[in-house]
Design goal:
The protein is 54% helix and 3% strand. It is mainly α and 580 residues long. The protein has a two-stranded antiparallel sheet with strand order 1-6. Strands 2-3 form a two-stranded antiparallel ribbon. Residues 110-488 form the Major facilitator superfamily (MFS) profile domain. This is Major facilitator superfamily (MFS) profile domain-containing protein. It holds the Pfam family MFS_1.
Length: 580
């Protein structure tokens, strides 16, 4: 790389400004708790409600002649449905006796069943046991027997839309801004959800699920990016943890909604219509100042930064704002810029699988602050994969043991989900962060297209889905060791900085954890008020023998480059009051 000119200013990082106007002050807290965290709910609601829309009740062939008689559905089944040849206690689901019921007499109301009667497929439709599942897509569209794979195709449609959506909205995220792309994503989600609720044909329902899939998980990523870019370096871990917790709480809430609403159309409306209120966020959700600075929209960025400083009771340094403008203009002139079912009770199972994520987030929060990102990501994926594979060794009747292993595996894989988002956000530069995270999610989403078919194959071979997903998790965890560690590193701003980051990686780095170091008194944020403001280069600076060395005030701000290091006092204890 070319040597730095003596007259060139030090690179600008918004992380240096946030501690002076409030890293996580009243402005960021109000934005996080009232806007960004509630904005995480639609993703889980509209993605997982489909699991309950496609419930499959017990079913058998419909015999219209028997419907006219005063018989219960169990009596109709005993009369018209043959039993399976290999299991005399189980009825066939897709065949019935081929007899003329109008010619059969019923002496004393009884009929002697002749197992040698010929059989035929369900020519007149199906009869469903609605004692548990009163309404579902399967019942309305008769998605059973020869069409039993169709509910899986609906899930595939949802997952096909996901990779397309995250990439499309990722591009919009970086081109038109975080705010506009969020509301475009929300509008797409609500349109798809309304189409779902009012679908009266199967293929229209599939199209509706593909439209919803366009926003999964993009509608969750965009508020996360806004929160990440507005929070100071020491609070990004907390923002990540709270975002994931709110997402999980949304799933817990969804389990209650699905328990109370058994009609699938009412469920589709109940899990989408309330989010029309989110359009009110247009008046309070700010654009990311980092994105505005990269787009050279300085006036808008300064307005937002002044608002943050005012609400937080701080004052925006004019000299610092001028320096930001000069540096970004200089980058543009120099061409620096170039172009993310284990139990019989499905409601309790869904509740447990959602609730178990919260402790994993809290433990992962502590580990990320001390160990870094790479090793926790590797271990969580490897351990999750191992427990998933171990489940195969259990007997078929070990439901409790299977549930326990599944919850442990879900706990660890949820931890990896928490880590991967801030990790990806820290690896990509600001000007490409939206499309970078979107592209990563697109590549990961390709697997979602295959997973429903793997699960469907599990209906005949239960071992296959567990082995495949467990092995993929283990391999993915091991390959994560190749990524550079980002703990104690500043967010790269330009594409060039992103390319230089991690260039000196060696295999020995695989065995190193994040750069932990002790904190000195001069690095404490307690002394930030005493730090002098960065001034334009003086005559002494220009005549300095070592122009690349930062001034003492900048050296005191080195700790601000830490991404997730927790606020501590002079004894090294965590100061939890700073989080709230």
């Amino acid at each position: 790389m070319p040597e730095k000119d003596a007259n060139e200013e030090d690179p600008i990082d918004l992380d240096d400004l946030l501690p002076k106007i409030g890293e996580f002050g009243i402005y960021q807290k109000l934005l996080l708790w009232l806007v960004c965290l509630p904005a995480c709910l639609p993703c889980g609601f509209c993605a997982f409600n489909q699991l309950f829309m496609t419930d499959v009740p017990d079913y058998w062939c419909l015999v219209p002649e028997l419907q006219k008689l005063n018989l219960t559905h169990e009596e109709r089944k005993l009369l018209s449905i043959p039993r399976k040849a290999d299991d005399n206690t189980t009825f066939e689901k897709c065949a019935r006796y081929s007899v003329n019921w109008t010619e059969i007499t019923f002496p004393d109301g009884l009929v002697k069943i002749n197992s040698s009667w010929p059989v035929e497929p369900c020519l007149d439709g199906y009869e469903y046991d609605k004692s548990e599942v009163t309404s579902s897509v399967v019942i309305d569209f008769d998605l059973v027997c020869d069409f039993d794979v169709y509910p899986t195709l609906g899930l595939v449609a949802l997952n096909v839309g996901g990779p397309i959506g995250v990439y499309t909205f990722g591009i919009l995220n970086d081109r038109i801004g975080r705010k506009k792309s969020f509301f475009a994503c929300l509008t797409t989600l609500l349109i798809g959800s309304l189409m779902t609720a009012y679908a009266h044909e199967y293929w229209f329902w599939v199209l509706a699920r593909a439209v919803v899939g366009l926003t999964i998980p993009a509608v969750y990523q965009i508020p996360f990016i806004i929160s990440l870019e507005l929070a100071g370096p020491n609070y990004r871990s907390f923002v990540t943890v709270m975002t994931c917790i709110f997402y999980t709480l949304g799933l817990v809430l969804l389990s209650g909604v699905t328990y109370l609403l058994r009609d699938w159309r009412s469920l589709a409306l109940a899990t989408s219509v309330p989010f029309f209120l989110y359009y009110l966020y247009w008046f309070v959700l700010p654009e990311s100042p980092r994105w505005l600075l990269m787009r050279k929209r300085f006036e808008e960025a300064n307005t937002i930064l002044k608002s943050i400083a005012r609400v937080n009771g701080k004052e925006l340094p004019v000299e610092y704002t001028n320096k930001i403008q000069r540096q970004v203009l200089e980058q543009a002139m120099n061409g620096v810029r170039e172009s993310e079912n284990a139990s019989s009770n499905q409601y309790m199972s869904f509740f447990l699988s959602s609730a178990v994520e919260i402790p994993s987030y809290l433990v992962c929060w502590v580990l990320m602050d001390r160990v870094g990102r790479r090793w926790p990501l590797c271990l969580s994926m490897v351990i999750s994969g191992i427990f998933c594979i171990v489940t195969v060794l259990l007997p078929n009747d070990a439901e409790t043991e299977t549930l326990i292993l599944y919850l442990i595996s879900k706990c660890f894989i949820s931890a990896s989900f928490l880590i991967i988002y801030p990790y990806a956000g820290e690896l990509y530069p600001t000007e490409l962060r939206g499309v970078g995270i979107g592209t990563s999610a697109y590549i990961g989403g390709l697997g979602l297209i295959i997973i429903p078919f793997v699960n469907y194959l599990g209906s005949s071979n239960l071992v296959l889905p567990l082995v495949v997903m467990g092995a993929v998790s283990v391999v993915g965890g091991l390959t994560a060791l190749r990524l550079p560690e980002t703990l104690h590193c500043s967010l790269p701003q330009t594409a060039e900085e992103g390319e230089e980051f991690g260039k000196d990686w060696t295999y020995a780095d695989c065995f190193k954890c994040g750069g932990q170091r002790s904190m000195t008194e001069t690095e404490s944020y307690e002394n930030l008020d005493q730090l002098e403001l960065t001034q334009p280069p003086s005559v002494e600076d220009k005549l300095s023998d070592m122009p690349n060395i930062r001034r003492s005030s900048m050296r005191k701000l080195v700790r601000q480059a830490s991404i997730v290091e927790t606020q501590r006092d002079l004894d090294g204890n965590m100061k939890m009051t700073y989080w709230f």
